[in-house]
Amino acid sequence: YRGDGVIVTEIERGSPAARIGFRRGDILVKINGAGIESVGDVTNVVGSGGRTWSFEINRGGRVIRQFFRG
Predict the structure, then answer these.
(1) How does pLDDT run across 10-69, given as a tens digit for each residue?
(2) DSSP labels for 8-64?
């Protein structure tokens, strides 16, 4: 895969990713409006705090927006 985002390769049962509804093969494009280009970007955005998250996911060419309150 070449492009914006990070491919979801694994999801642990009961994890926040599982509760959000991520699927293997999803491409995580944005978190809270911030573009994601690497796993490091995910760590930085999630580690910056916050209790409400918005995710933009590319699933098979379709853009899906998911929200999570944690």
Answers:
(1) 999 998 889 888 999 999 999 999 999 998 888 888 877 778 889 999 999 999 999 988
(2) -----TTSHHHHHT--TT-EEEEETTEE--SHHHHHHHHHT--SEEEEEEEETTEEE
